[in-house]
Amino acid sequence: MTSSKLTFVGGGNMATSLIAGLIADGYDSQLITVSDLDSEKLAQMAARFGIHTEPDNAKAIEDAGIVVLAVKPQVLESVARGLAETLQNTQPLVISIAAGVQETILRDWLGGDVTLVRSMPNTPAMIQSGATGLYAGPGVTDEQRDMAENILRAVGLTRWVDDEAQMDAVTAVSGSGPAYFFLIMEAMEAAAIEMGLDNETARLLVLQTALGASRMAMESSDSPATLRERVTSPGGTTERALGILEEGKLRELFAKALSGAQTRSQELSNMLGHRLP
Q1: Torsion of CA 110, 116, 120, 121, to 10 degrees
Q2: Which end of the chain is more exposed for a tag (fewer CB within 10 A), N or C?
Q3: Which phi and psi (to 5°) does residue 28 adopt?
């Protein structure tokens, strides 16, 4: 684990999750600083993690080797412009976890001459089970890529993309993805209750089944298609259910849904960057 001084600008849920994961992985808490306007939040984080806190963003990043921008996309421009002068002088690695803000736009807000990694973690990162897409801007060294990956890996799996446009696909697949699975669980639970199971039994069976299926897929070298085939006996109940889902064009519906999410990600990115589509 790197020993660079690390500053989080913004102390929200994702920053808190990253800090918890980093400290659990052995990162020295005395090397971590968080800046935020909420003094109560800073006090809570200092007490919980033993880290440094600072209400002034520019002061917080003065001696940082790595700066993580962990503020909402809607306020990122004003925050970034307020950091630009300091960043131009100190030249740390900057990691953005703000959804939708393109690397070129953010680099411009930060003054132009910065090494910048854009990332897209998803909400399961808050329980150290996240999936994060990473994109390295111009000038990011192999060492800095490793630094960024080590930080985001503290909350789950990381994968690099070579083309920033693929970050919209990352958003559609993993950024929005947890909600798709929640919807499936919701629908299965409602169907189970309709078939006569009590609420608690329906909920627990659905959740454990989802967990078990996910773990089997993660721990197996076989594809989901192969795993599906193995649990589908000819003429059995699973085959009957899957046949109905296929008749309902579930695959086509998912393809359309993810394509829609990707398109919306592109639209929001243009809006946040003040760029015309």
Answers
A1: -100
A2: C
A3: -70, 120
pLDDT along the chain (277 residues), means of 10: 84 94 94 95 96 96 96 92 94 93 93 94 93 95 95 96 95 96 98 98 98 96 96 96 97 97 90 56
Q: Rounded to whole angstroms, what are the CA distances from 238 to 220, 230, 231, 266? A: 20, 11, 8, 38
Class for the domain spanning 177-263:
mainly alpha
Q: Give pLDDT, residue 109.
A: 95
Can you say how many angstroms the Cα of residue 34 is from the centroid of all Cα atoms in its chain?
Answer: 19
Asked whether the beta carbons of 155 and 128 are under 8 A apart, the reply is yes
- Of 100, 141, 131, the C-alpha closest to 118 is 100
Tell me which CATH homologous superfamily contains domain 6-167.
Answer: NAD(P)-binding Rossmann-like Domain (3.40.50.720)
Burial 135-173 (b: 16+ CB within 10 A, else e): bbbeebeeebeebbbbbbbbbbbbeebeeeeebbbbbbb
Query: Distance between CA atoms of 134 and 96, rounded to whole angstroms?
Result: 10
Q: What was the pLDDT predicted at 268?
A: 86
Domain edges within the chain: 6-167, 177-263
Instruction: Return the pLDDT at 272.
Output: 74
Place of tokens 């696909």: 169
Rounded CA gap, 32 and 99, in Å? 23
CA distance 42 to 31: 16
Unique residue bearing structure tokens 């999750």 = 17
Question: Rounded to two decimals, what is the model's pTM?
Answer: 0.89
Integer CA distances (angstroms), 211 to 46, 131, 156, 181, 182, in order? 34, 16, 16, 11, 12
- Determine the Cα–Cα distance for residues 7 and 2; give it in Å rounded to an integer: 13
Q: What is the C-alpha separation between 105 and 276, in angstroms, rounded? A: 13
Q: What is the pLDDT of residue 274?
A: 55
